Amino acid sequence: MRQLILASTSPYRLQLMRQLQLPFITAAPLFKETIDPGVAPELMVRHLALGKAKSLAERYPDALIVGSDQVFVDQRGRAVGKPGTEEAAIAQLKQMTGRTHTFFTGIAVYDSLTGAHQVDYSSFSVSLRSLSDEQVSDYVKREKPYDCAGAFKVEGLGIALMAQMAGDDYNALIGLPLIKLITLLQQAGVDVLAGDS
């Protein structure tokens, strides 16, 4: 099997990728993420995912490189990224409480030898409970979700913030749409279920 690279330093994506039981290594993408609110989120996350994957092509000239990126769309239709700080996380969650939001996660598999690539995205909607400012603040201080779009970790205590969730692939909400990734890997010649992968 070709060398498989996950273009990410995210511990969440690393954990999800391990579920596929394929040999892979991780590497930090050499790509600057820029959120452009004028671009449709499904196009933006596809572009960002491919940009991350392509950014490692020179370093890994004969590999299949997986890139992924995520944004969520707030109630005003704006694409929003990771909060980065406690204050920004609290502000982000306060604006989200009691409303439904859609997360878009892009996924790309780039063949650095041939330049061939497959790109797709997944969307997942979450409805947050109506929360008090104190509940929001306490949650952010406990879980520190500064590096998560939406300022919560649904795989942790963040599940307590949810009233409802809907989508095709729960993993997309965490940051790596595995169902789409398996399809893209198959298109690139990697059968996840083959015993000798």
Describe the structure.
The chain is an alpha/beta fold and 197 residues long. The chain has one domain: Maf protein (Alpha-Beta Complex). Helices cover 30% and strands 25% of the residues. It is built from six helices and seven strands; from the N terminus they run E-H-E-H-E-E-H-E-E-H-E-H-H. The protein has helices spanning 11-18, 41-54, 86-96, 133-143, 170-174, 178-187, and strands at 3-6, 25-26, 63-73, 79-80, 100-111, 117-128, 162-167. Strands 1, 2, 3, 4, 5, 6 and 7 form a seven-stranded mixed beta sheet that branches. A hairpin with a 5-residue loop joins strand 5 (100-111) and strand 6 (117-128). The longest helix is centred in the N-terminal third of the chain and has 14 residues, at 41-54. It starts with a strand and ends in a 10-residue tail after the last helix. The model has no long low-confidence stretch (mean pLDDT 93).
Q: How is the main sheet built?
A: 7 strands, mixed
Could you tell me how far the N terminus lies from the C terminus, measured between alpha carbons in angstroms?
6 Å
Given the helix and strand composition, which structural class is it?
alpha/beta
Radius of gyration (Å): 17 Å
Order of helices and strands: EHEHEEHEEHEHH
Task: Write down the CATH class.
Answer: Alpha Beta
- Report the β-strand fraction as a percent range: 15-25%
How many strand elements?
Answer: 7
Fraction in helix: 25-40%
Average predicted confidence as pLDDT: 93
